[in-house]
Design brief:
single chain, mainly beta, five-stranded antiparallel β-sheet, globular, disordered N terminus
């Protein structure tokens, strides 16, 4: 008898871009700029970027979501996933739920970006290691959203409240200032073990 076990390897990252750090002069007045420029006039490749990496826990409800997807079933939870960043939260555990996200900053809850989750992520800004066995979730926050000292993140169902389940729950610390954008990457690698 063969007993194969699989597990989920987890990785989360914040990619924070300071749109004003490289600007000598802020431009305004409705100028039409090529895509390689930020709306403030900075050349995108020259904008200050910092990456903050950490790990997260896939919860019991997250494991159920993965198993249901594997079997082609409609997931019990997370049909319309959102991601929230926090400025205060309880310690992550396999049973973390919505009530563990104690403080979410203004604009700190967003829908997962359009084509996500997906495997083999083609986003070259993803600091993880995408692949055919890696499910990537991505969520993007604008310059005025989720400002503050961020300490964690979680994926959950849109409109979550009370003790609604979380798919994952992680600790990650960074400060996001107004004028900076934030892209959150959650990479879950399915690893088979004999």
């Amino acid at each position: 008898m063969v007993n194969e076990r699989s597990r989920v390897s987890d990785y989360i990252a914040f990619r924070i871009v300071d749109h004003l750090a490289s600007c000598q002069t802020r431009r305004s007045g409705g100028l039409e700029l090529p895509d390689r420029y930020c709306t403030c006039g900075a050349i995108r490749s020259q904008m200050a970027t910092r990456i903050v990496e950490s790990h997260n826990i896939v919860t019991v409800s997250g494991n159920q979501y993965i198993a249901e997807g594997y079997c082609g079933e409609t997931p019990t939870n997370f049909g319309t996933p959102n991601l929230s960043v926090t400025t205060a939260q309880n310690s992550p555990s396999s049973t973390s739920n919505w009530s563990d996200l104690t403080t979410i900053p203004s604009g700190g809850t967003k829908a997962i970006d359009g084509t996500y989750p997906q495997t083999d992520d083609g986003d070259t800004n993803n600091p993880g290691t995408p692949g055919a066995n890696v499910a990537t979730w991505r969520c993007s926050f604008g310059t005025s959203e989720a400002v503050g000292t961020l300490i964690g993140l979680a994926i959950h169902q849109s409109g979550a409240s009370g003790t609604d389940p979380l798919l994952n729950h992680g600790l990650i610390t960074s400060t996001k200032a107004s004028g900076e954008t934030l892209t959150c990457y959650v990479n879950h690698t399915i690893i088979g073990q004999a």
